[in-house]
Design goal:
Elements (H helix, E strand, L loop, with lengths): L3 E4 L8 H7 L1 E4 L13 H11 L5 H17 L5 E6 L4 E7 L4 E2 L9 E12 L6 H6 L6 E4 L4 H9 L20 H10 L4 E4 H6 L8 H13 L2 E4 L10 E6 L40 E3 L4 H11 L3 E5 L5 E6 H10 L5 H4 L5 E3 L8 H7 L1 E5 L6 E6 H32 L2 H7 L10 H8 L2 H5 L7 H18 L9 H17 L3
Length: 501
């Protein structure tokens, strides 16, 4: 299947013209030799460590991922989107050949892929809002995969309008407004279905926070509707249906509520189990009655530590693991699958995850039931839990580092009387991100920092970081959007680069 990629031509677009003129997608990393000598991502990481010994393990891993995608994962026929920084346009091309190294070129122009450029004059507005969001990544190389990106980019490359994205089960136009939503609800010609992400976006929200949940819930209630399932816990790209809440009981009061209707409460969304399940939940299982060798073979082939055991209808029976197999063999040299099957905790897809942490770390995993409360749809392991905590914690750690560096340099460079005017007394002289935006909106004050940065660009980065930080302060199980994380990483890297103290 054809993929789509964004490949940036340098921070300031310094490789734009050479890329277009020579029919290439070019990436930097001038200190890295030809990638053909690296036969694995780990080998590439080791090579990057030698080239850039002063860089952190995280940065080396990030760079290795980008270069590996450019070298090995990008295929002929894939589409490439290149932002043209100097003219605020985009170019779209088709990859026509393999990676090659150009030793005779400038150091920052040696890693390349041949590309046939299809269009080089694309206005940002030709991309739908969700695609524009994906193109906001600060990575040099990133895959564009959300919302049928490759198909839509192909349409734009052919000179046709972006067809937009809509979940197969949704029926509300992707460009609908709140007025369109209420009109569709009131006419009642067909059930109104849309994704949670699309529902929130009608009010200008991108994540579920205390503010967004209360606002949207209030508006729905004011129009006498709710959602099925509840938009507070459904996946962001899952489809919810707007259903009417009964206006008043009938004379006989014999009506029943729609099946599966969930009440929306006034609390923010819980961090539910679905937060760590993949977008398309599934689970590998072995059917009870099969030979134990079947389970062993599956576990070896898939590199699993455990496997669900289900009956012929797919309902949970138990689990088999290397530990349970070892225990079974202590009492029987030739154990059956039944001998090695053990009981484990099974939780529902919308259970609050915090209550399961002790069990997950004690046993190593729990199984998850789907919306029918019967069939298994996934497993949550201790590794999943650690990864999710890391995903949620990383933006906070980056922002904290940037804020500490900014605070230290600000107190050293900006006169106290200037700070006193911008910082409330209750803050004890410690500016918030919002205070920094006000302080450095003045070019003269910004120049006191002595940083070799463009004032307008820095202020834009700072404002974005402030807005994202404010959103993060409202706890949510939803992962931070890729473009937001890239913006935070870019801001932190900028401040770190100029703050050498």
């Amino acid at each position: 299947m054809k993929s789509a990629w964004q490949v940036r031509a340098g921070r300031q677009g310094e490789r734009d013209q050479e890329s277009l003129a020579e029919g290439l997608a070019i990436v930097g990393w001038g200190g890295v030799p030809a990638l053909g000598r690296f036969d694995s991502r780990e080998a590439l990481k080791a090579g990057l460590r030698e080239c850039y010994p002063q860089r952190s393990t995280y940065v080396i891993g990030n760079w290795a991922g980008q270069l590996w995608r450019f070298y090995r994962e990008m295929n002929e026929g894939d589409l490439v989107v290149m932002p043209l920084k100097n003219v605020r346009r985009f170019a779209i091309g088709e990859v026509t050949g393999r990676y090659h190294y150009r030793p005779g070129s400038a150091p920052e122009c040696r890693h390349a892929r041949p590309v046939r450029w299809l269009r080089t004059d694309i206005e940002p507005g030709e991309f739908g809002p969700d695609l524009r969001g994906s193109l906001g990544s600060l990575l040099t190389v990133c895959r564009l995969s959300r919302h049928e990106a490759a198909r839509r980019i192909g349409e734009i490359a052919a000179g046709r309008p972006d067809p937009g994205w809509q979940h197969a089960s949704a029926n509300l136009d992707p460009d609908a407004t709140q007025a369109d939503l209420w009109e569709a609800v009131e006419t009642g010609a067909a059930p109104v279905k849309l994704t949670v992400r699309a529902l929130l976006s009608l009010w200008g929200y991108r994540r579920r926070t205390a503010t967004s949940l209360v606002t949207v819930q209030f508006e729905l209630a004011e129009h006498g509707v709710t959602t099925k399932p509840a938009f507070t816990t459904a996946r962001m790209d899952a489809v919810v249906e707007l259903v009417p809440v009964a206006d008043e009981p009938g004379a006989a009061d014999s009506e029943t509520d729609p099946p599966g209707l969930e009440a929306l409460d006034d609390l923010p969304a819980k961090w539910v189990v679905r937060a760590v399940l993949p977008e398309e939940p599934s689970i590998e299982a072995v059917t009870a009655g099969k030979p134990l060798a079947t389970a062993v073979t599956l576990m070896l082939a898939k590199n699993y530590s455990q496997l669900a055991v289900v009956d012929a209808d797919g309902f949970h029976v138990g689990a088999v693991s290397w530990e349970s197999i070892g225990r079974a063999r202590l009492t029987n040299p030739e154990p059956t699958l039944r001998d090695a099957t053990t009981q484990v905790r099974v939780i529902d897809f919308d259970d609050e995850l915090f209550g399961q942490i002790d069990e997950i770390y004690r046993r190593g995993y729990v199984f998850v039931r789907g919306e029918d409360r019967r069939k298994l749809i996934g497993v949550v392991t201790a590794h999943d839990l650690a990864r999710q905590f890391g995903t949620l914690a990383r933006p906070f750690s980056l922002l904290e580092e940037a804020e500490l560096r900014l605070r230290r340099h600000t107190k050293r460079s900006v006169p106290e009387d200037v700070l006193d005017k911008a910082v409330p007394k209750w803050a004890n002289g410690n500016p918030t991100f919002g205070n920094y935006v006000r302080i450095f909106a003045d070019r003269a004050t910004f120049e006191l920092l002595g940083w070799p940065l463009d004032h307008e660009t820095f202020l834009d980065l700072l404002t974005k970081a402030k807005n994202i930080r404010n959103e993060l302060m409202h706890f949510s199980g939803d992962e931070i959007p890729e473009q937001d994380l890239a913006a935070i990483e870019g801001f932190c890297a900028t401040v770190k680069a100029v703050d050498q103290s």
